[in-house]
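User: Design a sequence. Structure:
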């Protein structure tokens, strides 16, 4: 359910855009709806949990900036940058977490649900960094080499599909290491 909640603004963008014949008018209307949906998403999350999720706040800020530029300048090139900006910011956050703090971002998010050896957490965290960078590059390639209508399809289904495949591959990798007895201490010596 959380997965659908996180993609709620993107799905609405797709539905609104596809309901217009004129691509620019549809893009502007869809951008407005996505901005409102992102704000609603944050509000509903806060009402339920009494806290904000960083991913939602970052996405809202980028949507407001790039979406506002799209609406103001009536130019879809700004909104095309949104998935790349979000992905690259996440790449920076995941990479930074390897050097700042005691735990990687991925470990902080998942350690309550799964136990893995420390090196595996690091490998997985770096894999997400690479994934986010590549997803941003692929988005730019599609955004600026294909018609806007094709980019909207890619942004909605292609990026979602890429993420789904990556998560499945990562799950297989994690499954090989769940319950692995190799847990290293601070001296990098295996505990017995």
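Assistant: Done.
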């Amino acid at each position: 359910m959380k997965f659908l909640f996180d993609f709620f603004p993107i799905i609405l963008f797709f539905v609104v855009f596809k309901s217009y014949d004129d691509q620019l008018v549809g893009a502007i209307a869809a951008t407005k709806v996505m901005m409102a949906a992102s704000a609603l998403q944050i509000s509903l999350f806060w009402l339920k949990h009494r806290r904000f999720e960083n991913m939602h706040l970052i996405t809202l800020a980028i949507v407001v900036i790039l979406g506002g530029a799209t609406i103001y300048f009536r130019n879809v090139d700004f909104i095309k940058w949104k998935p790349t900006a979000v992905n690259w910011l996440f790449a920076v956050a995941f990479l930074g977490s390897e050097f700042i703090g005691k735990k990687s971002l991925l470990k902080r998010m998942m350690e309550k649900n799964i136990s893995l050896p420390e090196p595996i957490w690091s490998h997985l965290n770096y894999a997400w960094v690479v994934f986010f960078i590549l997803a941003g590059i692929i988005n730019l390639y599609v955004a600026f080499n294909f018609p806007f209508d094709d980019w909207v399809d890619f942004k909605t289904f292609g990026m979602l599909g890429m993420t789904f495949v990556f998560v499945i591959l990562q799950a297989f990798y994690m499954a090989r290491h769940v319950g692995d007895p190799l847990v290293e201490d601070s001296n990098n010596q295996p505990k017995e």
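Helices lie at 2-18, 23-49, 54-73, 77-80, 82-97, 105-110, 118-145, 148-175. The chain has two domains: 1-80, 82-178.
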